[in-house]
Amino acid sequence: MKKDIILAGVGGQGILSIAAIIGYAAMENGLNLKQAEVHGMSQRGGDVQSHLRISDKEIYSDLIPQGGADLIISVEPMEALRYMPYLSQNGWFITNTTPFVNIPNYPDTEELMNEVKAIPNHVAINADQIAKDIGANRSMNIVMLGAASLFLDIPYEKLEEGIKFVFGRKGEEVLDANLKAMKAGKDFAEENKI
Amino acid sequence: MKKLMLLGDEAIAQGALDAGLSGAYGYPGTPSTEIVEYIQRNREAIERNVHRTWSANEKTAMEEALGMSYAGKRVIATMKHVGLNVAADPYMNSALTGANGGVIVAVADDPSMHSSQNEQDSRYYAKFALMPALEPSNQQEAYEMPFMAYEISEKYHLPVMIRLTTRLAHSRAGIKRREVLNENDLQKPENPNQFMLLPAYARKKYKHLLAIQKELVKESENSPFNKYMKGEDKSLGIIACGLGFNYLMENFEAGKCPYPILKIGQYPLPGKQIEKIINECKNILVVEEGMPLVEEMLNGFLGNKKVKGRLNGTIPRDGELNPQIIRRALNLPELPSLAIPEIVTGRPPALCVGCPHIDTYKALNEVLKPYGKGHVFSDIGCYTLGFLPPYKAIDTCVDMGASVSMAVGAADAGLFPAVAAIGDSTFGHSGITPLLDAVISKSNIVVIIMDNDIIAMTGMQDSQVTGRIEDICMGVGVEKEHIRIINPLSRHHEENVKVIKEELNYNGVSVIIPRRPCIHVYAKRKKKS
Q1: Considering only CB atoms, which chain A residues are within 8 Å of B383?
Q2: Distance, CA of B107 to CA of B127 (rounded, Å)
């Protein structure tokens, strides 16, 4: 078993929480794991990514080779496209469709979505809207995790445990919102998977 | 025992703690910050009362570490690569004084300059100081190495460097812990001359340092961190240092490399194994993260056609390594991969919405407009982003504290206005001494100390000078009436412009302190209350 995952977004959008939950679930499942993060200057509204590698064998590189990623999970559509060189030929591309516009020259969103739709294995999901609809405004990232959960080969209950591990200390309300968000993301992906 | 999921930085911290650490000294700097941060929040470290507050800068950190070593305790000094430049004076001399309690100098390099002003390879510093260095290839080694480092440090009475790079510093993996060692007892040096570097003593110590180099090579030859791995195909031998080993192995199914490999994790280089691989193999590929230190040593001045790496272009001369680069160096076919769609644009980091620096820069820009560009010397921190549009408010960024000293030099040359724009913690790190120069030479400068209450860029560490800035400036000799506090908010814009103008027109040293907490600190405090 091997899953190489690129997590992408803009600094502050919560990709490290996604990584922490998958990481916890993988460890609990007895798998090896390496997770490279971006700290420092880019976290100030710049593009950030995390390379998450899970395997039942020894993992060498902390970075995923280009053309080697099984999954790109992105909380922002342009950021998802930035990591296209990493996607393997049979890899899945799972992205939020809500743009995060903090630059003056952000591309036309329709053209951007056309690029996304041209990718054979893609799931495009308006995670911001879904999070709002279920009253979990701050859990857009966990909606994305839910959508990706179908592709992770990790039991869903383990991911739920991961959410409890990461959000447990923040009180029941936050925990429930995130569990609901993950479920909503999973349901959407199940209905809309090609 | 359950594995701990740790960043490379955190693994070093946990390793040092488990190897009997009594104190951590450092100054925040990406990618080294998380070493001290981990110790600051670690329950066992708190219970043991391990020293863990930030130092004013890397030089004081290194000296404080030496003091703790003098008292017999195990200690770690942490910094980023450019921080070692700041600490270079005590660092170099610590090779002569040596250590009493074990000393680790943990330095995190940042190839590709993700968050840095330059690319440096700290292994050169280890070689320069004739000090042993350890370089982990993974998180488990990062955890194990402090144990070995303290052993060597106390055996040879010599500090030991642990060098790591961004990618390992900020990558997580599971760590198996070892049995925890007790801290050392308080114990002054046996030799009362040990830390005395009067020339007559220093000469003897230098001879001693030179004399033990052979033994350090032997240590490397017997080290578990230097491994010779056999390979059938001797048309190529590969010397892989630190993280480079991973990128190499990534390119072979199940780690089965056909070529002999010498994996390096401890310096000075293990002479025996180096000789073996050179004699055994037709060509040598050197894979090292950072600068071509090993490659240069193998090449010598006359060159060696057998040796390939960064110097002959097999691997790019600058920047961080990755699996593709090594794949190309091995002449393996590339994995099919797509290009980035043209529609994707860059998203550079920027000042956050609501950041106090924005209002400071707006006021400063208005005041300086009549004078044109080229008058603001700045420094290292979030506010360096003020160089970018739409602010375009500053003109220089060189090293910690250089804003004040460069403004002094430019004013001395006759440039007017000469403004320094520096953050509160950078001022505490290296801005105070040039301010003293300015006072003594009566330089006509305005120093803007942007006080946001925190070390923001590296992720919210406590600033040493919070609550002390005015006192420090007065203590250095800046006149009280020319130390002005402003509130960087748009509703105070006119007032702030007026204050800056007034101080610009004062012929002497002025300090203006725009004071408002970093927006993230503000948000956190609001949440708490």
Answers
A1: none
A2: 14
**Cα separation of B162 and B439, whole Å?**
40
Positive or negative: CA dihedral A1, A20, A186, A169:
positive
Looking at residue B428, the DSSP 8-state letter turns out to be: I
- Segment B220-261, tens digit of pLDDT: 999 999 999 999 999 999 999 999 999 999 999 888 999 999
Region for B346 from its dihedrals, namely left if φ exceeds 0, alpha if ψ lies in -120 to 50, beta otherwise: beta
Give the integer Cα–Cα distance in Å for B9 and B149: 16
Task: Give the minimum alpha-carbon distance from A183 to chain B in angstroms, rounded to a whole number.
Answer: 26
Q: Which residues pair with B420 in a beta bridge?
A: B377, B447
Q: Which of A32, A58, A63, A165 is best to mutate for the B interface (most B CBs within 10 A)?
A: A63
Scanning every residue of chain B, which has its alpha carbon at the shortest distance from the alpha carbon of A77? B344
B349 neighbourhood in chain A, CB within 8 Å: 11, 41-46
What pLDDT does A194 receive?
52
pLDDT of residue B444: 98
Find the helix or strand (DSSP H, E) in which B103 lies: strand B103-109
At residue B454's C-alpha, the angle toward residues B450 and B456, to 5°, is 85
Give the pLDDT confidence score for residue B177 in this predicted structure: 97
For residue B413, the 8-state DSSP code is T
**Chain B residue with Cα closest to A103:** B347
* CB environment A59-88: b (16+ within 10 A), e (fewer): bbbbbbbbbbbbbbbbbbbbbbbbbbebbb
The closest alpha carbon to B435, from B397, B478, B384, B377, belongs to: B478
Residue B305: C-alpha distances to residues B3, B98, B248, B297 (Å): 45, 39, 22, 13
CB-CB neighbors (< 8 A) of A30 in chain B: none
Tally the residues of chain A.
194
Mean pLDDT of chain B, nearest integer:
96
Q: Which CATH superfamily is domain A2-192 in?
A: Pyruvate-ferredoxin oxidoreductase, PFOR, domain III (3.40.920.10)
Which residue intervals of B26-75 are DSSP H helices? 34-41, 43-48, 58-70
Length, in residues, of chain B:
529
* Contact predicate B226/B274, CB 8 Å: no
Q: Do A107 and B345 touch (CB under 8 A)?
A: yes
SS3 B39: helix
Cα→Cα distances B527→B517, B523, B524, Å? 14, 6, 5
SS3 A8: strand
Could you tell me the pTM of the whole model?
Answer: 0.95
In angstroms, the CA B180 to CA B388 distance is 49
Domains of chain B: 4-211 (3.40.50.970), 227-329 (3.40.50.920), 356-526 (3.40.50.970)
Please, are residues A128 and A98 in contact by the beta-carbon 8 Å criterion? yes
Q: Residue B32 carries which DSSP code? A: T
- Is A63 an 8 Å CB contact of chain B? yes
Check if the beta carbon of residue B335 is closer than 8 Å to that of residue A66. yes
On chain B, the residues whose CB falls within 8 A of the CB of A42 are 114-115, 349
The tokens 């040593």 sit on which residue? B297
Please name which of B106, B5, B176 lies closest in space to residue A36, comparing C-alpha atoms.
Answer: B5
